[in-house]
Structure formats: C-alpha cells, structure tokens
Amino acid sequence: MTALKLTDLRKVYGSGFEALKGIDLEVAEEDFFALLGPNGAGKSTAIGIISSLVNKSAGRVEVFGHDLDSDREAVQSCIGLVPQEFNFNQFEPVLEVVINQAGFYGIPRLEARRRAERYLKQLDLWDKRDSESRQLSGGMKRRLMIARALVHQPRLLILDEPTAGVDIEIRRSMWEFLRGINQQGVTIILTTHYLEEAESLCRHIGIINHGEIIEYSNMAELLRRLHLETFVLTLAEPVLVAPEIEGYPITRVDETTLEVIVAQERGINRLFAALDEHGIQVQSLRNKQNRLEQLFMDLLSEANALRRQEPCP
Amino acid sequence: MSRISRYRVAFNTILFREVLRFSRIWVQTILPPAITMALYFIIFGKLIGERIGEMDGFRYIDFIVPGLILMSVISNSYANVVSSFYSSKFQRHVEELIVAPVPDWVVLAGYVGGGVARGLVVGIVVTAVSMFFTDLHIHSYGITLTVFVLTSILFATAGFINAVYANSFDDITIIPTFVLTPLTYLGGVFYSIQLLPDFWQQVSLANPVLYMINAFRYGLLGVSDIPLTLALGLIVLFIVALLAYSLWLLRRGVGIKS
Description:
heterodimer, A: about 325 residues, alpha/beta, Rossmann fold, Alpha-Beta Plaits, four-stranded antiparallel beta sheet, B: mainly alpha, 11 helices
C-alpha cells in the first residue's frame, strides 16, 4: 500500500514565491524514506502541507488512501510530526506535553498517561517528566517531540531534521530508536542535512531542489551511480613523494597522508597490492566525503547547471 | 472510539489545559482583580459613595456592585483567551492542535471555555469580596447566571479574535486598553444613564457593554436602564456573530497557517 502520494503539489506563498512547482512523490508503506534538499528547496513546505500546517495552492495529498481535502481528520490521525523548530509549550511539564497531545487525538487521559510513560521511558526522558520542558537540553527537546509525535501511534512518522544540533552519541541512539519504530511497521519520512544519517537509515530517497523533485530512487541504486570515490590513507611510515600507480591518481597531503581517487570498477584491492609493492604500509583508511554527500552535491550541481541554461521566462 | 467521544476528549484536554494555565499563575490572574475590586469598594463605595447617596433607589455601593463584578468578568474572560491563544501562536504550540484531528469548533469551544472558566472563578472571588462591603441580595439567580455566562462567552470569543490577528504582545494590549476599558467605564458601571443629558443617553445606547451591565444589574438588583429582553437579545446576537467570525478565521487559517 502507498503510505503517501503527492500529485502535482504546488505552493505559491502570498509574496509570490513559488515554493513547490508541482511535485509528484510516492512513499510505500513501511518504507524509511529520505527527503533531501538544500535550505529553501521546499522540503518543509511539502511537510507542512502534508501535516496541515500549510495550505496548498494546488495538487493532491493522499495518506494511506485518505484524501487530505475530503478526509482531513483521517489523514491527520495517520500522521505523527516531528517539526524542525521546537513547538511545544515551554512552560508545561514534559509529561503534560505528551498527554495533552494524546488528548487532542481523542485518547482518554488514563490511556494517554500509560502511552506517555512508555515512550518517555524509551526515549530516556521519564526522569524529566515533571520538569518544565524549557529546562531540557536541545537533544532532550528533540526526543520529547518524537515521544509526542508517537503517542497516538501514527502509521506515518514525519521527521523534519530531528537530529539537528544533537551530539553524535544521542544522534546514534535516536537512529536505533527510529530503526526499531520502522521495523514495527511505521513508515518514516526523514529530512536531514546529515547525509550519513540518510544513507544509514533510509531505503528510498527523494531530492528536492528549487521546488522540484530532481531525484527519486532506491538508496542502493543511487549509491551505485557513484563512479569515483576519494579515500584518505594514513600511512605507517612517512613518504617523501606520492607513489605512481596506474589507474589510481594519488596526491600526497603530508608525509603520512595520501589521497587516492578510486574508480568503482577498479576496486580497492589492487590499490593495496600496488602500495604493498612500493613498500607502503597503510595504517587506516576513510572516505574523504560521505558517498551520498558526494552524489547529492553532483546532482544539485547538474540541476543548477540545467536551470542556468534555461531561457529567462 | 466514536467521533463524538474523540471530540469530547479533545475539548476536555484544551479546557483542562486552559484552567491549569490560569490556576498555576493565580497570583497574576485571580488575585489582582480581587485587590482592584476591594479598592473600588473602599474608595468609590465607602469613601465617595456615602456622600453620593442613593442611585435608582439603592445605596451607591450596592448600585455599583453588579457593574464591578461584570467588569472583572469581561476583562478576565477576554484576557485569558487573548493571552493564551497568542502565546500558543508565539511559542508555536498552536501547531499541536493544527496537526491533530480536532475540528475548528472544538478548538474554539476549548479556548472560550477556558475564558469562561476564568471569568467564573474571578466573578466568584470578586462577589465574595463585595460581601465584605455590601449585603448582596440576588433578585433573580437565573438571569444573573445567564448574563454572567453569556457575557463571559462573548468577551472570551472577542479575545480569541484579537489573538488571531495579533502579531506582537503590543497587539494584545491595544484593544483592552483603548477599546474595552473605555466601553466598560462608560457602560454604566458607576452611574445610571438616566443621569446623562438626552444626547449622551442616545450615544450610550451604542455601547454594547451598557446592555450587559444593565441586564446583570437587573439580575442582582431588579433595576435596569434597558429592557431585559432587548439586552439579552443583543448579547446573543453579538455572540453568534463573533463565534461565526472566529470559525471563519480558523477555517481560513488566518494568523496561524501560511
């Protein structure tokens, strides 16, 4: 079943700015979907329309077969939203924020309290349940918004940059939590600027730029399109010059660091064999750039180059 | 769960949250009107009132009690909704309601209910304070309570409309300061309009607050400058108009959606 279907979705703001220029998008049930794009591309506008925060100018939104125009309450019941900005009452205690949200979805108070306890415990916030939410750290506030979004047990969870400003340890624990939620059958749509996060979590990806979808595919397929990768090698012993190895352009960064561009079809085994022949021992290896990040930048450059070639209207 | 049960839970949640909000800050919400009213009773009722004598056949302090109680109800019902709803826009937690399957009329009923609850609590406190200064005899409990609740609904709804349009904290104080307070003071709280020259009596009839204060005074004392049915009819008319306008604003998403 399709969890989300957008058809020719358009948004023109009062200022005349066209934030969405007729996007089409489908997200399958139980998918973990990444919606990526640079700032101002239209991601938050799209999410705002889907979650009823923004009025659309034209087009159609369907969530699990329910049409947003004709069956708005059914659509809203299916969605849990974790917005980009903190949007809870800063003076309310943590537990109350979650219980009240459940109440807005019609969940009686006793049941709401039981669910709030479960999610706050899972997100390590139970000890803070009586604290005013403004007293929480940034990472805790993000987790509170996740607990609040889950309390009515939505089938589609939309997270708009949920790990922005969160330290790496908490970010990774949030990834694990979200993976678990997804494995339980919740469809997740994620926007993020941490492309490592999208690569690690998501199975499908859509890239939006200037209000248009410029890429929509399977994450694995997309990554296979990456022909060249740059690796950074840390050496066991210093070298004076970069070795010359056919098919592998190498640059010496400093005496113990080399950068190598590796074409996908050549692989990395031959590189190590050749380095070994030159008496060079590699201590460690890492990607210079995240793979998805490299692709993302390439796709945006292509799309922007195409836009520049278009005649002025 | 039926749709009606879902709406009932949502309404109760909004109402409970509103009541909790003004109860938590009772020093800012409940105490000040009690002190202000006590000062009014001491200064205008006791000190000045005893020199004024009778008005409409009542001691001056007894005559001003209904107006002073209703003045507190009006300002507190209004203030509760305007500050709470504007604050929810300012902190963006109004979005919690927008994304949830809560119909506009439930949202409006919840906020107005909160305003009425504060009006009720303040009204009771102020009435209790007035008992230290006067022997309050209620002419008609039914009319008193009806006018009390209707006035509270009317001004809570007006506060909601103000909050929808407000873009800053200044915007939520302009209407109470420059419109509501003058209308209330000129609405016959401290005098009968029979004391005014004909021209100013006619001008006063254009003030909607006059009808509420007189209807409430009729409920408490049994006297009024305005026929009761006319007063009640106008209050209901205003309520219907403001509720309809509020629902239209919510439906359009004015001030809360882009």
